[in-house]
């Protein structure tokens, strides 16, 4: 069924307006953390139970802050890749309620696109 607009606007279908179910809630952090091997990464759990993962070359960092990163407004995940002399690095953050599946996908892509020298 298509609903035609009476004046300025747009038309759509009833199916397009149906509600969707979205992935919500933090999920299991192990989906992210389990992507790192001891051969290439250092993992540290601090006294707040925050988890820090660093590449052995020091250019990649992942932090998981289940209760929120101190000094931020609910930052739960931090990913940073240090740049080079010619190309800037980057960083991204996700809040504590971002599903671990979403963070895991971002981490997987970062790791897939890295190259060993």
Describe the fold and architecture.
The structure is a single chain. This protein is of the alpha+beta class and 117 residues long. It has one domain (25-113). The protein is built from 3 helices and 7 strands; from the N terminus they run ββααβββββα. The strands form 2 sheets. Strands 3-4-5-6-7 form a 5-stranded antiparallel sheet, with no helix packed on it. Strands 1-2 form a two-stranded antiparallel sheet. Strand 1 (2-3) and strand 2 form a beta hairpin. The model has no long low-confidence stretch (mean pLDDT 91). Residues 55-112 form the DUF317 domain. It comes from Streptomyces zinciresistens K42. Pfam families: SPDY. This is DUF317 domain-containing protein.
Show the helix and strand layout:
Layout: E1 2-3, E2 12-13, H1 14-17, H2 30-33, E3 41-45, E4 51-55, E5 60-64, E6 75-81, E7 90-95, H3 100-112
Antiparallel strand pairs: 1-2, 3-4, 4-5, 5-6, 6-7
Main-sheet strand order equals 3-4-5-6-7
- Give the ordered list of helices and strands: EEHHEEEEEH
The best one-word shape is: extended
Straight-line N-to-C gap: 57 Å
Number of strands: 7
Q: Low-confidence segments, ≥5 residues, pLDDT <50?
A: none
How many domains would you count in the coordinates? Answer: 1
Q: Structural class, judged by helices and strands?
A: alpha+beta
Helix content: 10-25%
What is the average of the pLDDT values?
A: 91
Strand content: 25-35%
Q: Gyration radius, to the nearest Å? A: 20 Å
Q: How many helices does DSSP assign?
A: 3
Question: How many strands, which pairing sense, and closed or not: the largest β-sheet?
Answer: 5 strands, antiparallel
